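Worked example 3. Consider a protein that binds pyridoxal-5'-phosphate.
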Amino acid sequence: MPDKFSIPFNQSSLLGRELEHISRTMTIGQIAGDQTFSRKCQGLLEQVLGVKRALVTTSCTHALEMCALLLEIQPGDEVIVPSFTFVSTANAFALRGARLVFADIRPDTLNLDETRLESLISPRTRAIVAMHYAGIGCEMDTILTIAARHGIPVVEDNAHGLFGKYRGRWLGTFGCLATQSFHETKNITCGEGGALLINDAALMDRAEIIREKGTDRSRFFRGQVDKYSWVDLGSSYVMSDVLAAFLYGQLEVYQQIQAQRRRVWEYYDQHLRDWAVSRGIACPTVPAHCEQSYHMYYLVMRTLEERQALISFLKSRGILSVFHYLPLHLSPMGLKLGGSTADCPVTEEKSERLVRLPFFNRLAPAEQDQVIAAVLKFQDSKPSASTVGAAHLRSV
Ligand SMILES: Cc1ncc(COP(=O)(O)O)c(C=O)c1O
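Given these inputs, the predicted complex is written out as structure tokens:
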């Protein structure tokens, strides 16, 4: 086995004027947050997406924590989250004392299963979190209709989905709040970072305060108050302008980035879909009414053993492929929070079979050819019923 991968799963690169902008933060002497480059990032997000307000944050995790504070989640309140998601989607609400109600996913898009959503709602439900897996939109029409019927706010965890659309409308513009990630694995990055998108104007003022340690510092800088003070709960969620400068360097070329990622995604799909389908291996499903964000390309193998064998096979050729989320309702923390009672068979089954292929902006065609050739050479394929089951999940 090679100890270094010739083709990594992810690799960051300079895609625009990132360094020039960072250098500028120093010449203008602005490296704390909420200055020239943070404002440029926020302005671009607001203008392109048409959201009422965008606030760049230290991470998507922190933007989700802001959502829990903004929605005033209290101990004992219930929040519906998919089990197949990153830990932060759930943890942000657990931090406020929420009882998590884990939802299963659709077998095709791996998004929250809207057909089972209403059965999870109780008089204590205070929020529904929809996560757009792989940047392919959840069924927002149904989710919003159900949520509106019960008067429950919807938050979009759009960590994967920046510049994806559902029925022609940008992801991140459906919920009262939505969150973005600019972690290095995302299409557009600054290493570590995120954003809160605010679609409900009533939440705008408190969002600024929560992000500024619970103070009205933003109002003070706008000259709206003559001193700033502690007025609410909050924390330090402001992104440094050094990171915002890097981020702006990528955001201002987002169309090129998205076009490049589209080429990578389509190339995988052209070369792998027939091979996969003929073997009962699944490729991503993109419904006709969704324009995806081209965040990742994955295969859902027939069994856990086959998935592990493919990862090892690619590794022996210097290629790093990775699995994804382990079901949150079966995680040690999920179980502690009552997750064992959750009924998420699709999550359990998909989670143990899914593998993500190397996918990054500068993945060269020759490298992608190597990945594809290796996958096509992979012969291990003896699925047996005994290999599929929840018992395997905790050992992966
Ligand atoms: C769906 C989802 N939500 C939230 C996060 C957290 O993002 P961050 O690392 O910016 O906090 C991730 C991270 O990959 C994610 O995949």
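Take a moment to read the result before moving on. The mean pLDDT is 94. The first strand starts at residue 53 and ends at 57.
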